[in-house]
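INFO batch 0412 | record 1 of 1 | parsing
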Amino acid sequence: MELLRADGHATAIGAAKRRSILAALAIELNRVVSADRLMDIAWEGEPPPTAKAALQGHIAKLRRELGDGVEVVTRAPGYQLLAPRAAVDMTQFEDLVAAARNAPDAEAVELLDTALALHRGPPLADVAAEQLRREVVDRLDESMINAVHELAWRLHRIGRADEGIDPLREAVAMRPLREPLVELLVLSLHQAGRQAEALDVYHETRSRLSEELGVTPGPGLQAAFQTVLSSEEPEPTAVPWQLPRENSGFVGREAELAELDRRRGDGDVRVITGPAGVGKTALALRWAHRSAERFPDGCLFADLRGFSETEPVEPGQVLSAFLRALGIPDVRIPSDPDERAALYRSTLAGRRVLVVLDNASSAAQVKPLLPGAGCAVLVTSRSRMDGLAVMAGAVRVAVPPLSREASVEVLRFVLGPERIDAESEAAVELAELCDRLPLALRIAAARAAGPPQRTIRSLLDTSADPRHRLAKLSLPDSGEGVHTALTGSFQRLDGGAARLFRLLAEHPGGTVDCFTAAALAGTTIHESFVQLERMAAFHLLHETDDGRYLWPGLVRLYSTAIAAEEADGERNAAFNRLLDFYLHAADRGLRFISDSPWRRWTGPPPVDLPEITNAQAAIRWFRTEEANLHKMLGLAILRDEHARACHLALSLERFHHRLGDRAAQLEVLYCGLNIAGELGDVRAQAAFSVQLCGDLAS
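INFO prediction complete | emitting tokens
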């Protein structure tokens, strides 16, 4: 553990505990490390009562020693080392290796040479914190071994295999049973003209595999052995690492990460599913980078564009790209998609590779890309992927919106703690307006980070208007944003489900069921159930425990925005069908809870009505729909549907009377009396007046 000045001279770090604290902060560069964890590391799990004060002292001394753009800042619940990634050799190594993955061979060799030159022996050799060493050493060793493998493979491809032999030997000494490493060492020795050594390495590994594991060499290593015997030169299997860099500012998701960490055996298929903008890709990348040591033979990544404006990527196209990444030349890649999939599975046989399939559209798109046992697959999709769960035993990890606290942390990451602390209430309100979706939160924060005079409250005020909120949560330069993301999901609906989704804008409440949806669309409840399930499958709606469907605020705004695609006459007819449904259903319920004479609604009956056969069922239905009924009453008045509004007011009055809710009953009575007067319905006026006089008298 060294602290170097810009001129290359070392600065004394001092006490052993200070060295451990600096190491822990450097390993988590630009991320917050809690004070509890730092104390646990420095005092080996047994911090004394004075540890907190001592930690503060060590931090203060480190701050005096750091310089050249490196600083330790206080960030709840601990501290954060802020520095360019190139200032720490570990992160500089990671960036060089990442840059090499997509570089041409000669350039990749230079980048990997530079990266490996940073490795100077066992990590943290002079750091006393044994717990920290245990956590870090294996991971860093794996990274180094993978970089050596990549370097040796690139050197082999450009005819300079002899340069990779020595680092390969060191890597094999560390992982003697890792066959892809041994395979590449055998082929490198062969290319360098050292056939005898190549054969010795093969036979030594074969004996070790037999003695320690009771197995024979796999297909790749056996093919390398045959190459040495026949002097043919096949391509070695590459170790790809195609993961994109993970997003900065990742917060929360501890429960989802823990669920992804659960081991379920070889060939796991995990599906991260959730609505547009909820952060599925960010979660997948966080877990994949964190779990890199589980997959020593590499990682394959593909964006399947399942919900983009363009067509989804064909599985055959992805297979070709994966095979090339695994070192298979184009001339050996079959033109037949099934044969291509078979070669892909054969190439991965016996290896431990992570396959990340981002933004998948369907199980049919994913199925040809599933490798055999030993490899793990991580899929992200807005679809629930029911077919993949059935066909491949996939385990689904549902990703909900962030918690309120995590949502504010996303804003804090972009805007800084000072602005959030100064407008904490506004930050919470903004998070809720964004439905606590990371995509919306980041866009909102980016807008708030614009002109220095722009406050969170000013952005909140302009975003509060539902007519403009979706526009405020889009990026003007690219058009990307919540509206675009929701369009990708909406376009996956068939005609009937798309029509119902647009008509849902006519429903004023926060939830619907199959009956109200059927009334809106003028269909049967079976048809509406299928259509609602289709929307729920793409996370446009969420099914509740009681069989209803709710939609978040931003989805409702989107439904309202695209409702204009339906003709005005159809939208008005849908509203009237819904209002008639509520009137007929209320009449059915009032048979069991009201003793007053009742004039039934004579409007067109809906195709289906809920089963209400006793007073308990009637009260349950009224209570469930109470908020929706009051909102429908207000809309009926605004739309001059006075006859329907009058009847609905009478129904609500009887319901509130049965429950003894005097305040609500009086409110509906006054409202109904006004409507009846405008309508000129003397009989209704009398009914409202009698009830009103009785209530006032009592």
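INFO post-check: The mean pLDDT is 87.
INFO record closed
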